[in-house]
Write a structure and sequence with these properties.
By secondary structure, this protein is an alpha/beta fold. The chain has a single domain, classed as Aldolase class I (TIM Barrel, Alpha-Beta Barrel), CATH 3.20.20.70. Helix 11 links the parallel strand 7 and strand 8. Helix 1 runs antiparallel to helix 14, helix 11 crosses helix 12 and helix 13 crosses helix 14. The radius of gyration is 20 Å and the shape is globular.
Length: 362
């Protein structure tokens, strides 16, 4: 019997009931008063898709070109930290999905499964996401490790010079590494299915910091990263280099000039600066600035197939889904993830038919 998931909203509703409050708010929360998240959602909702009629759209394809390869669908998996909080083994579920769909799995610096087994499970369909942290020594160790593991694409996330204040996390005392006090113990006791499952499988950890001789402090300043840092990274990284977290036209143009292979328009899921512009509205301006041929990706606030089509219409060449996938896993495990992925694929295909198009590929 398939889970009763018919949209990402269903997955979120079920996940909210099943997850501890602390974990749900970590996944779902945004910066400040969460006005940025609401503003981006309103901007997405305000974009029209115009229906067209009497066009033969019977032979549709969701595949799109992606950095010299072909993805089966026009969306991949955003790098997300500590995914195994949504359910034990969530990282590997996402990796198997990436392998099957031939789409990139974003492997976070703070993933709860190490980068090596993830790229293996994803059958090479994995991109490593990098945070510059502290003095950068540990950061560049991770770069070398990713290279050794076989990663061919690196995502440098640049929109976290300091971790944004997320009140929902702070109210629950959420920290990485995970710490359990009286408040958290009560929260877990109220959600016994999640708690027992995680007790059996072990507390999720930041798995990329068990062999390199340094620890990752989530709250540590990342403010030292600058254009020289990017230049050094470009010099030592032989593969594709994507810069994620761009909302300014001038920054996008400078990144193109600096030799990056793609820019990703994003506000970090609205988790950094509450007053940031809605990324979906910045997308068209960035596209106009970098030209039609430069690879441009998008994430933040995508809930379904029509959102994906809207992002492409604003200039994206590829999109990434984030927290909705964690909600599907929390709601119904790997089956829930696969069901939601199929739903979003169907929504995208149906939207194409409605607007009289057969593909999002250029």
């Amino acid at each position: 019997m398939k889970p009763s998931i018919h949209s990402s909203a269903d997955a979120r509703r079920i996940a909210k009931r099943r997850l501890p409050w602390m974990v749900f708010d970590y996944i779902d929360g945004a910066a400040g008063y969460e006005l940025g998240a609401a503003r981006n959602r309103a901007a997405l909702d305000a974009i029209d898709l115009r229906p067209r009629i009497l066009r033969d759209v019977s032979d549709r394809s969701l595949s799109v070109p992606l950095l010299g390869k072909t993805a089966k669908v026009p969306f991949g998996i955003s790098p997300m930290g500590m995914c195994n909080l949504s359910a034990p083994g969530a990282d590997m579920m996402l990796a198997r999905l990436a392998a099957r769909e031939n789409v990139p799995l974003g492997v976070s610096t703070v993933a709860s499964t190490a980068m090596e087994p993830l790229i293996e499970e994803a059958e090479g369909n994995a991109w490593f996401q990098l945070y510059f942290s502290g003095d950068g020594i540990g950061t560049f160790k991770l770069v070398e490790r990713a290279k050794t593991a076989g990663y061919e694409t690196l995502i440098l996330t640049v929109d976290v010079p300091e971790v944004g204040r997320r009140p929902r996390e702070l109210r629950h005392g959420f920290t990485m590494p995970f710490k359990i006090g009286p408040k958290q113990f009560f929260d877990f006791a109220m959600h016994p299915r999640w708690s027992i499952t995680n007790l059996i499988n072990g507390k999720p950890q930041m798995a990329n910091f068990d062999m390199d001789g340094f620890e990752f402090d989530r709250t540590e300043s990342r403010a030292k990263a600058d254009w020289d840092t990017l230049s050094k990274l470009r010099d030592i990284w032989p593969g594709k280099l994507i810069v994620k977290g761009v909302l300014d036209v001038d920054d996008a143009v400078a990144l193109k000039s600096a030799g990056v292979d793609a820019v990703q328009v994003s506000s970090h899921g609205s988790r950094q600066l509450d007053s940031a512009p809605a990324p979906i509205t910045a997308l068209a301006d960035v596209r106009a600035a970098v030209g039609n041929d430069f690879p441009l990706f998008y994430d933040t606030g995508l809930r379904g197939g029509e959102d994906v089509v809207k992002a492409f219409k604003q200039g994206a060449n590829f999109t990434f889904l984030g927290r909705v996938l964690q909600f599907a896993i929390a709601a119904a495990g790997e089956e829930g993830l696969n069901v939601l992925w199929e739903i979003i694929s169907d929504e995208t295909s149906i939207a194409l038919a409605q607007i009289g198009e057969v593909s999002l590929a250029p």
